[in-house]
Predict the structure of Outer membrane scaffolding protein for murein synthesis (MipA/OmpV family).
Amino acid sequence: MRIARSLALAACLVAAPTLSQAADLLFTPESLQTSGWIVTVKGNVRVGPSYPGSDEFSFIGYPSLSFRRAGTVERFSAPDDGLSFSFLDESVFRIGVVGRFQGGRYLQDNRELFGLQKVDWAVEPGVFVEYWPIDFLRARAEVRRGFNGHEGFVADFGLDAVQRFGAVTLSIGPRLALGDSEFTRTYFGVTPVEAALNGQVTPYRPSGGITSVGATGAISYDWSPQWSTTAFVTYKHLVGDAADSPIVKRFGSEHQVGFGLTVSYSFGYTP
């Protein structure tokens, strides 16, 4: 099902130039530089671990949307940022709300998970803070709370060095992730009953703390004022109680690698 959804999204991306020609008849960004809004529509395709700690990959495709005032410069956004909206937006400082989606862990992801409780997908609303100490360096922090799949608190911290060379923008930087005990026990814990049913893992009750360290790198290319493409790779190394989980050691991997591609189309709009 995940592959089918990704193929459907890919078809939409292929059709995007034709759709954009129709949009261009209604919206001309160059003529709306001092009034109205610039709307950016994105198609995103990502490949990553099927669940936290997994050594198998799954595909996901989804759209996203952002707005900015006409005449303002588009802000840098790392590909692993949560979907965010700022209510305080200064030249070097931003604060606002953010949200992320966390996929679930199901038996069909790995038959060796038999006996372990399934974990449904989760949404993680929260807040973010972003600061540019110098013009090519961005620091960002997100704190979020999970609902549905897990009920814990998580936080992500990142630093990005950003450089632009004509139509090309390069970014790279370290990452640090934390989770409380509710989060780690959901994805990395094993109850005595689960251990008895599975037969390949032992009971394990992890504590909260640092769950991973890693890095994210991306390259973007502006094909025109309207079209751009971004490719990226992410790496997380599970540490602490997350890395010591028998689920990770027996069925998964401490090394969490992800890849992705985003195609963006921007147009002007005046209500």
Q: What stands out?
A: DSSP finds five helices and twelve strands in the chain. Residues 2-72+100-269 form a domain with the Outer membrane phospholipase (ompla); Chain C fold (CATH 2.40.230). The first strand starts at residue 37 and ends at 49.
